[in-house]
Design a protein that fits this description.
By secondary structure, the protein is mainly α. The chain has 2 domains: about 15-115, Rna Polymerase Sigma Factor, Chain: A, CATH 1.10.1740; about 115-210, Arc Repressor Mutant, subunit A (Orthogonal Bundle). Helix content is about 65%, strand content about 0%. The chain is built from 8 helices and no strands. It has helices spanning about 15-35, 40-60, 65-80, 90-110, 130-150, 155-165, 170-175, 180-200. Helix 2 packs across helix 3 (about 65-80). The longest helix is centred in the N-terminal third of the chain and has 23 residues, at about 40-60.
C-alpha cells in the first residue's frame, strides 16, 4: 500500500543482501579514497559510470556533454570525499552530485542551443505516427516535461528518473539508492503529484498521464 510519509516499517529495515554487500564495498572504497588511493576512485568510476551516465544523459541530452559532465562528477567526488558524512548511502550521494552537475550544465548551455530538448522518447511523449502539427505540439510538451522534471526536488527527481526513464522496479531502486522500499514508493508518489502540478501550470492537461 502506498504511503504519503517516508516511514520505515520493520520489513523495510531488513536490508537486501545485494544492497548490503554494495554498501560494505563502498565504505571500503571511501576509506581508501580518504587516504588518497586513486585506485579506489578508479573502482568507483568502473562501478558507477553506467548508472550515472544514464542519469546525466537524460538531463543534458547530448552524448559528448554527458561525458564531460561525468568527468566533472568524479572529480567532485574525489575532491569532496572528506565531506561525505554518511547521512545517505554513497550511491545516493553520487546521484546527488551527478544530477546537480547535469542541471548546472543544462542551465549554462540551454541559451546557446537551438533546441532545449530534442526528444523525450523514454518518457513516452513522442509518437512517430503523428503529423507535423502534432509534432510541434509534442515538442512543446517535451519542453514542459523537461522543465517540470528539473523543478522537482532532487530526491524526487532521482527516483522518478530511475523508475520512468530507466525502467527500474521499486525494489531495484531501493537497492540502488540504499533506502527503504516504503521510501521509494512515497517519493515516487510525491514526485508524480508534483510533476502533474507543474505540467498543469504549463497548461498541459492530464499531466500525470504523459508517461510519468
Amino acid at each position: 500500500m502506498l504511503t504519503n510519509v517516508e516511514e520505515r516499517s520493520p520489513k523495510d529495515l531488513v536490508r537486501d543482501p545485494e544492497a548490503q554487500a554494495r554498501e560494505e564495498r563502498d565504505q571500503k572504497l571511501l576509506a581508501r579514497m580518504r587516504q588518497g588511493d586513486e585506485a579506489a576512485l578508479r573502482e568507483v568510476i568502473t562501478a558507477y559510470t553506467p548508472r550515472l551516465y544514464s542519469c546525466i544523459r537524460d538531463v543534458v541530452r547530448d552524448n559528448t556533454a554527458t561525458e564531460d559532465v561525468l568527468q566533472i562528477v568524479f572529480w567532485k567526488v574525489w575532491r569532496n570525499v572528506e565531506g561525505f558524512r554518511g547521512e545517505s548511502s554513497f550511491s545516493t550521494w553520487l546521484y546527488k552530485i551527478a544530477t546537480n552537475a547535469a542541471i548546472d550544465w543544462w542551465k549554462k548551455h540551454r541559451r546557446h542551443r537551438g533546441q532545449e530538448m530534442s526528444e523525450v522518447t523514454e518518457l513516452g511523449v513522442r509518437d512517430h505516427r503523428r503529423g507535423p502539427v502534432d509534432e510541434i505540439a509534442g515538442k512543446d510538451l517535451e519542453r514542459h516535461v523537461h522543465a517540470a522534471m528539473l523543478r522537482l526536488p532532487e530526491k524526487f527527481r532521482v527516483v522518478l528518473q530511475l523508475r520512468e526513464v530507466e525502467g527500474r522496479s521499486y525494489e531495484e531502486i531501493a537497492t540502488e539508492l540504499g533506502i527503504a522500499l516504503g521510501t521509494v514508493e512515497s517519493r515516487i508518489f510525491r514526485a508524480r503529484e508534483r510533476l502533474a502540478k507543474f505540467l498543469t501550470e504549463y497548461g498541459v492537461r492530464g499531466g500525470s498521464g504523459h508517461g510519468v
